[in-house]
Design brief:
The complex is a heterotrimer of chains A (159), B (104) and C (396). Chain A is mostly helical. Chain A has 6 helices and no strands. In chain A, helix 2 runs antiparallel to helix 3. Classes of the chains: A mainly alpha (159), B mainly alpha (104), C mainly alpha (396). Chains A and B meet through helix 1, helix 2, helix 3, helix 4 and helix 5 of A and helix 1, helix 2 and helix 3 of B.
């Protein structure tokens, strides 16, 4: 059953990602991006990392997607936000994809997933506060700096 | 056929390359940012997949890296979009081909 | 024990229905179990929505010294039937230059998060639809998808008023999402788990035999409950914060170009959002399905949950009938200048209470923390102009 779920979610997510990359109208691309993010969150649930899946929906769909949509709104020029497509990029992307797939298929990996207890939020909290407390503080500092920086960048210039 | 690590890795590679496609072949600044977000998300899927199939999954290292990466990606998206708005206010365009004042 | 039988009647009924399928493979039983939960949840809340829509009009009518609807059925209680028929047979008008796909998907995307959020709330003993480890996080994660739906509604209508209403609505919802999340943090900190079942279980028992151990009876809990309730009011776009949909201001904001069934879907999404937020407030602060008085334990747990939910919904309607609408800049400054600092204070007060071992000293010091910050903020943000004394001149 998990194989069927894997294939369905993979189709859903890749369709959303391809639509986000190739649709001519910007708003449709942004909304397909939301579909792709939800598909990625479903993958995290399938992999047993439920907390990351929930954080993915929370941050990407609830914050990053809303930011993108707001920016599209604020940079409109009262005409269709269409954008041309440069096919050279497609060639590069396909080249990179083939080399990555070649590298993956030539790596020897273990086939079976080990049986683990589900990862609880409590365990993640423990690890964050003991082993990873300094990265946590650094990320807090980074987020504060990003917040202040973004606010300064979009502040209206004083005449 | 249960999904193996190879399946997840190929999937994240595909997602990464779709993000690369979006970042390379579009001229609108926001499309490029969309591509970058897709690439970051693909890398996160890679981390969590490796954590899941690792021989010692009681250490949630991959999951922690993915959580930090999501936080950093959100900060980067915020600053990137603020930059797009600031550039739009100044140059009245979001077409990155037209932002070439430093060209030699 | 007859009390326990009535209390677990839904759980026992579901177990009986699933035993009919015991010969089916495992995944069919799982899907059937999930489907039963969903069907029961949706049926119940759809009925509650219908009932609440007419009760709200009657209660508002009584507050305004008039009868509400009283023609259709006894005491007007079949009014939702008439409303439903009217909305369903109305013509579905879509503007010509509207973005058809986005315009169509917006109501669905607004309803979906509200229904999903209802799935993690414990309605009774052993009666949570989907009990996951990060239940509260799931609730807020799907709740944050509602902002996208509001934007889609405003954009898809190709109408400047809709777009303006949508921007205001999103600004309001994003600003109040922060206090909403931060006041939940003290509860999660004290309980030590994000699971709604664990939070309800941590509130059982009675202090000194009389006062229940609900979080609302602690100083930080009372402040957090009030902040959560106000933030919930704003998130559901209810008066006094219904600038996005105020009729006299911006027609209907982001819902202007919607008619018929799609408008009914928006309406339903707003009410389901109210149910979800009230349900979460009951779970987090009011002790979930626990009994307030020890000798009333024989009343089933789900009845207590719905009694508390009904009280909160009544307060929602009461506030709607009593307070006037606030201006959008007043709404925003209230969120960022008052509610966010108070929310952080609740975290500090909860920590103070916890580390004094929940005793008298803890109660007093955490109350002092909340009170000091509240008075400091009120003084600091006082913008009343000081008028000179009025002098009157009368005609001679």
């Amino acid at each position: 059953m998990s194989a069927a779920a894997f294939i369905v979610i993979a189709i859903f997510m890749l369709a959303g990602a391809v639509a986000a990359a190739t649709m001519p109208r910007l708003i449709h691309a942004a909304l397909s991006l939301v579909v792709a993010f939800i598909g990625i969150a479903a993958f995290y649930f399938l992999l047993g990392a439920e907390f990351v899946g929930l954080v993915q929906i929370f941050v990407y769909v609830g914050a990053v997607a809303v930011l993108i949509v707001f920016t599209i709104l604020l940079t409109r020029r009262d005409q269709e936000n269409t954008s041309g497509f440069n096919w050279g990029g497609a060639v590069v992307a396909i080249a990179v994809f083939s080399s990555l797939v070649w590298a993956i298929l030539h790596t020897r990996v273990s086939e079976a997933a080990p049986q683990i207890d589900p990862l609880t939020v409590k365990r993640i909290g423990e690890v964050l506060m003991t082993n990873y407390v300094w990265p946590l503080q650094c990320v807090g500092l980074l987020l504060t700096a990003a917040l202040i920086g973004a606010l300064i960048l979009v502040a209206e210039e004083k005449r | 056929m249960t999904p193996s690590l190879t399946g997840f890795l190929i999937l994240s590679a595909a997602l990464f390359c779709i993000g690369l496609l979006a970042a390379l072949s579009r001229r609108h600044a926001i499309f490029i940012l969309i591509g970058i977000e897709l690439m970051l998300a693909a890398a996160n899927v890679n981390f969590v997949a490796f954590w899941r199939f690792s021989p010692e999954p009681t250490q949630p290292t991959g999951v922690i890296v993915a959580i930090f990466s999501i936080a950093i990606a959100a900060a980067e998206a915020a600053v990137g979009l603020a930059l797009v708005i600031a550039v739009y206010r100044h140059y009245r365009t979001t077409n990155v081909d037209k932002l070439d004042q430093l060209k030699g | 024990m007859p009390g326990e039988f009535v209390d677990q009647i839904f759980v026992a009924a579901k177990r009986w229905i699933l035993s009919l399928l015991s010969h089916a493979p495992d995944w069919i039983v799982q899907i059937a179990s999930a489907l039963l939960n969903i069907i029961l949840l949706l049926t119940f809340f759809a009925t509650l929505f219908a009932l609440l829509s007419v009760l709200e009009r009657k209660i508002l009518g009584r507050i305004q010294n008039r009868y509400g609807p009283n023609r259709v059925g006894p005491f007007g209680l079949l009014q939702p039937l008439a409303d439903g028929i009217k909305l369903l047979i109305k013509e579905d008008v879509v503007p010509i230059r509207a973005d058809k796909v986005v315009h169509f998907l917006a109501p669905i995307m607004m309803l979906l998060p509200a229904i999903l959020a209802l799935g993690v709330i414990p309605y009774g003993r052993n009666m949570t639809a989907f009990s996951i480890d990060g239940g509260i996080l799931f609730f807020f994660a799907v709740g944050s998808a509602a902002e996208l739906a509001v934007f889609m509604a405003g954009w898809g209508s190709n109408n400047k008023f809709s777009m303006l209403g949508a921007m205001r609505a999103i600004a309001q919802m994003i600003s109040y999402e922060l206090p909403l999340l931060i006041v939940v943090l003290p509860v999660v900190m004290i309980v030590g788990s994000l699971s709604a079942d664990a939070i309800v279980a941590a509130q059982e028992g009675y202090k000194w035999g009389i006062v229940p151990r609900w979080f609302v009876f602690t100083p930080w809990g009372a402040a957090a409950f009030i902040l959560f309730f106000v933030a919930g009011l704003v998130e559901s776009n209810r008066t006094p914060f219904d600038v996005p949909e105020g009729e006299s201001e911006i027609v209907a904001g982001h819902m202007t170009e919607y008619s018929g069934f799609k408008y009914a879907t928006f309406f339903m999404a707003e009410y389901f959002g109210m149910f979800a937020v009230s349900g979460l407030a009951v779970t987090l602060f009011l002790g979930g399905w626990h009994t307030p008085i020890a000798w009333l334990e024989f009343v089933p747990s789900y009845l207590w949950f719905f009694a508390k939910l009904a009280v909160l919904l009544f307060v929602f309607i009461w506030i709607r009938g009593t307070l006037p609408r606030t201006r959008i800049d007043q709404v925003m400054s209230f969120a960022w200048k008052f509610m966010l600092p108070m929310a952080f204070t609740c975290i500090i007060a909860a920590a103070v209470w916890h580390y004094q071992a929940h005793g008298w000293a803890g109660w007093l010091s955490s109350f002092a923390v909340v009170a000091v910050v509240y008075f400091a903020l009120s003084r600091f943000l006082d913008t009343r102009r000081k008028f000179a004394t009025r002098t009157y001149r009368f005609a001679e």
